[in-house]
Amino acid sequence: MWSLLPVLFSFAQATFITSDASNVINSSFEFIIVGGGTTGLAVANRLAANHTVLVVEQGQDLANNEIVNNPFMFAAGTPSPCRFSMNSAPQIGFGGTRRSLPLSYGSCLGGSSSINGMMGARPTFASMNAIEALGNPGWGWNDFLPYMQNSETFTPPNPWQMKEGANYISVVHGYNGPVGVSFSRPLVAPLLQRIAKKTIQTVFSGEVTLTPDMGDGFSGGHVSSFYYQIHFNKTLHSDRRSSSAWSYLYPQKQQRIGLTVLTEHMVNSVVTSTSASGKITATGILIEPTTGGQKFECVVSREVIISAGALHSPVILQRSGIGNATFLRDVGIEPVLDLPGVGANLQDHIGLYNTSFPLAPFANSTNITAGTDVLTGIVVAQPTAQDTLGLEDAHAIENLLRNTSGYAVSVSGVVNPESLVAQAAVIADAYQIDHPFIEIFFTPGSVSLQVAAHTILPLSRGRIYVNATDPSADPIADMQYLTSEVDMHVAVAAARRISRIAVTPPFSDLITKNALDEAGVPRVNATEEEVRKWVLDTYVSDIHFVGSNSMMPKELGGVVSPELLVYGTTNLRIADASILPLSVFPHPTLGLYGIAEKAADMILLTARESSGYN
């Protein structure tokens, strides 16, 4: 399935990848996809089987870059040529201080699937049903699971891997899709994995239990070894990253004669026309070289699909005159369609990653440290609210969510109070049926062992909007991290559990006696103020951006319908993380492939219907 690139390009009828705009100027395509990242390439692959498709990607083609393709480069911290970042607007810190945070994203073919930690997480039954409850029929767990399965080729663990702790549930996986998903070969740091699982069960008093597979939709209250978006290359005899590019674009069997991919160019805006009834139709896109230069137009005959990610898709809409009309006029853009939700409802998990504990001298064994082949999050726990807080405090969090009107809407990035109330209510419902409250994961290392944590269903809402001074520059991203008291409670609870793990055997036996102090992590008996200060001083973006073109009813600030059509348009869709109204993917990529597969299915259905085929 995953062949070497030189073999791929021996095919005469291959997908056409170019950075030379002369190959597409004055051309027309049935479908144009803005963004050659995680979802964009997946949608393009499915559409181009029988249609002409243009993908425009602002980054490079890094097909043979070892830093991108070697999965062990991520945990090693090797700088990636695909990783770019922008700075957030100043965010809340302790005692009224403010600090900007780097917001990273992938800018190459494959997008963020080429820079991520590759952790094989899925949403849960409760979370997808929450998405459906926000006015999105057909997006519940039972409807969504087949699309995740369609994207996946899961490689079951072999007997040796299973003996060392790997496991799976066969019926929840797919076995014929483009994306390779598997455990590492050999299993990374198996002794640490056993110790981590045992420690988690002790810390949570047996309430967090072992499960064979965290991808079955019911991961809340469980702990397990983790699989990854990787595949084993028999020619190279090593694990390789299963990016969107190396899953849907480069392999031999994924070649599409109707697919053209233009790299190193950015989409300035979508070109539209307005009917007498006021409906907007996309007629093409305006393109320019990433390094600057002459703009040119490409024409579309069927649909434009925006897949540039939650940080960039809303800005493309805004530059196209689609968004909050008052704001657009203020920045000198003539409104085409007044849609206040564009750029609103932006969300991200916060990560607590300043949590590496010095290794005890005797523990320096590859069964614990993993040597040079380190992957992030080899064991993952997803305790529920009750597991984390106890029954009484879990009820208190639920009450906060169900009485969320106290959270100042003027601070948050929602369009109206009703939107936030509706979202908070479905989050509370999800917690009631054991949706994960936090995620804790263990990562080996040569000098320290990391026990990190992040939030999963934040209530804080931010906003992203075009830079008024220079619309082509980085947008303004005001994330509003931890502005909801609910989120602050969650983060404090996560921090306390990290501290508890560090002093609990058998994990504590692997690190130095003063590991908490050496790492600067609050002690187990730290005051509420001390833990809050540490959280506010150290939290970072988890780079899991969603929500900025939310799939919700328009009156709640929604931007797209359940069919992913932008409200008020006839043929403009969005298919990326920005459509998620809730941050339900603990690690987004496998869920995003599900979105891409579902989007392609809906787009092709429309194409068949418009052509008179059933």
UniProtKB/TrEMBL annotation:
Coiled-coil regions listed: none
Catalytic site positions: 544, 587
Cofactor(s) listed: FAD
Lineage top rank: taxon: Eukaryota
Entry keyword set: FAD, Flavoprotein, Glycoprotein, Oxidoreductase, Signal
Cited InterPro entries: FAD/NAD-bd_sf, Glucose_Oxidase_domain_2, GMC_OxRdtase, GMC_OxRdtase_N, GMC_OxRtase_C
Example of a GO MF term: oxidoreductase activity, acting on CH-OH group of donors
Binding site for FAD: 38-39, 267
Gene3D superfamilies named in the record: FAD/NAD(P)-binding domain (3.50.50.60), Glucose Oxidase, domain 2 (4.10.450.10), Glucose Oxidase, domain 3 (3.30.560.10)
Keyword Oxidoreductase: yes
Residue ranges constituting the Glucose-methanol-choline oxidoreductase N-terminal domain according to the UniProt record: 309-323
Membrane-spanning intervals of the chain: none
Pfam families assigned to the protein according to its UniProt record, in alphabetical order: GMC_oxred_C, GMC_oxred_N
Similarity comment text for this entry: Belongs to the GMC oxidoreductase family.
Entries under PANTHER family matching the protein: GLUCOSE-METHANOL-CHOLINE GMC OXIDOREDUCTASE, GLUCOSE-METHANOL-CHOLINE OXIDOREDUCTASE N-TERMINAL DOMAIN-CONTAINING PROTEIN
Listed name of the protein: Alcohol oxidase
